[in-house]
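Hi F.,

I've been meaning to write this up properly since the lab meeting, where we talked about keeping a consistent format for the predictions we share between groups. The idea is simple: the sequence comes first, exactly as it goes in, then the structure tokens exactly as they come out, then a line or two of notes. No screenshots and no reformatting. I'm using this chain as the first example so we have something concrete to point to.
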Amino acid sequence: MRLIFTLQKAIYNITAILIVANSVLVYGSVGFISENPSSGAVIGATVATKWGEMTVRTMKHTPGGTPTYGSRSVGYMGLTMYESIVWGTPKKKSMVGQVSGLENLPVPNSLYKYNWILSLNAGQSYLLKQLYSQTSAINKASIDSLEKVIYQSEIGSTSQEIAERSVKFGQEIAKAIYEWSKTDGGFEGYKRNFDSTYQVPVGNGFWKAPKKGQSPVELPLHPYWGKNRTFAPANGVLPVPEIIPFDYHKDSPYYAQMYEVFAKRNTLTQEEKEIANWWGDDPSQTFSPPGHSYNLATITIKTAKPDLFTAAETYARVGMAVADAFINCWKCKYTYHAERPFLFIYYNLSRTWNLFWPEPPFPAFYSGHAGQAAAAASVLTDLYGGAFKFIDDSHVGRPKDEWRSVEYKARRFNSFWEAALESANSRLYGGIHTCQDNEVGLKEGKKIGQNINALSWRK
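Output, unedited:
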């Protein structure tokens, strides 16, 4: 069986390489990109989305992925994409001196010309392989293939001198950001996903590692992630929100929250089951919640067709917002160590109640799904408006969930906030979060996204 799986995975990745090659080559030579949203700029944005797709593909097919490390990765990938080309437009401003601890980056020589697509291309390839150095050789080959195909599609319209200068600049940006990333507290976090020394408080209302959860080990995931450096300085000083205190009495607000989860599980509609599955984003099976948000950035760019520079800004804002959302969420989770509904329901309501999904290996309050979805919705709304219609096809093609009788069908939304609310509600439908978890997550995520928006993006 292992050999069959390995062969299937190899075939998948080889196919991915061919798809990448075909999809980029069809556009031919892109050349220099201006700020104006011309046809050339749209093609440049397509190159950006190819790297967005490659990023989430790498996340999905690298074992041991977590939502925490994944959020960090998209934060740095998005920022690097933006910084590798920001000097190519007179309208946008670098994040140097604005995001936490980033005091300097390489600057292009104003006397020379650059091909910004080649800069972006080189930077994305370098950083993705550094952030996922643990990924398979086949995945690395896919990354190299995409970089080579884009390079070859550009070299016909660019002199060798400009090409070499552009590639070098993109790599220098990526290297500088990678070195800076080593000081944020989450460097190589995949090597220490679980902490056997961390002491979870014991008593009523406190979280306990699930016996049959998503993780094969009964330990907390990244308990110190909340201490990591945020991208937006303002997000690093947000206060921890208040929580409804534990109370097992039937007339208490706490009991009411838990009872709502219990009752909803027993009355799920087919539509609610489909929503639960769509936003499940189990890191062992998908590109995880931050990958889903990063993919929504790709979908947005494909739908709106902005220029290259706006596309890069979209990835930067979404990536950093999602990264900061997970830091703040984890700070909250390991401040309160709040139990998930299953334990309370088991001891106070029903010994036969069953979860829709296995439990995640970390405390409940507040919902990471809600927080990061709201952060992403906040930045995307600021960029593209409050009535932006799009189709989320992130999970189309996944096999039908036979046990729950759910197929993965594309979902349509009239706004980014509509999608964020659905993502939050999915956790109630799945039985692993209360409405309090979701509502606070949405509120905190909005603050986090607004702080990313408040950075000076325009000159």
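Notes:
The beta strands are 390-392, 411-413.
The CA atoms of residues 274 and 406 lie 6 Å apart.

If this format works for you, I'll send the rest the same way.

G.
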